[in-house]
Amino acid sequence: MKRHVLAIGALLLLVSLAGCSSILGPGEFDEDDLVGNSTYDWNSDVNATIDIGPSNFTAVYRVENRSTFDAYEEDGLGQEHALEVSTVRFRSQDGQELTVRNDSLSVERSGGRTTITLPDNATGQLAFTAPRFGKTFTLPTFVSGSYNVTMPESARIGIPLLGQVHPGGFSTSIEPDGRMTVSWEDVDTSHFRISWYLQRDVLLFGGLFVIGIVLAIGGSIYYYRQIKQLEARRNEVGLDVELDDDDDPRDRGPPPGMR
Fold first, then answer.
1. How far is residue 259 CA from its own chain's centroid?
2. Cα–Cα separations (whole angstroms), residue 222 to 209, 212, 213
């Protein structure tokens, strides 16, 4: 019995030391990933600029008099999970860019959040890259104020049943490369959410809708003809001979012998 307990304990210890899927939480960030190589829009005049790509997104936030920045996401139950950030940059007001190889910029996990330590009382722009999946993008509003969120190529939100945006009060524009940007002058909620569809989805759904209508009409005509054929056959064998009102047996008087 003791051997079984020891074996199970050893197995749990190995699992806990296995890395990102361990019961003790993920390991430290890789410095090469944190330095990385991404392109950021430092010239944007809004408080948050987010560019959603096929498998990740880049974000640039304006920060003022801050020494730390917590980056996280929330699941459907409201539980916080640390964002797997990479290519972290801080750009000061004088244009100097810092990476984690500078002593004044560091990144670590703290509970369910990723804490980015900035220079003391920093004012400037913080940028990072993080993974993302699917046709819905949700993120807490780490800073207040104006937001620009550029969606993936061919993504649209114009059809209400297929595309949704929270909060309201937004505007949209099409960039020179054909991508759509959703903008808010002032985001006053704890998070924002965008669900979109691709332009090719409209053609697909439209084609399926037309095919469905054609099949429904064709099926209705087919069953209508089948019913008419059955009625004709019943009439041929006399199963649907209808009695006139004058032929009602009750109107023929009493039976013979009782008249």
1. 88
2. 20, 15, 14
Alpha carbon distance 34, 113 (integer Å): 16
**Residue 245, Cβ density class (10 Å: 0-12 exposed, 13-18 middle, ≥19 buried):** exposed
In terms of Cβ atoms closer than 10 Å to its own Cβ (0-12, 13-18, 19+), residue 154 is middle
The 10s digit of each residue's pLDDT in 27-46 is 588 999 999 999 999 999 99
pLDDT at 254: 65
pTM for the whole thing?
0.70
Angle at 99 between CA 94 and CA 103, to 5 degrees: 95
d(C-alpha 77, C-alpha 103), whole Å? 37
Domain range enclosing 216: 199-236
Nearest alpha-carbon partner for 125 in 178, 49, 52: 49
Shared domain check, 209 and 130: no
Would you say residue 109 lies in a domain? yes
- What tens digit of pLDDT does each residue of 155-192 get? 999 888 889 999 999 999 999 999 999 999 999 899 99
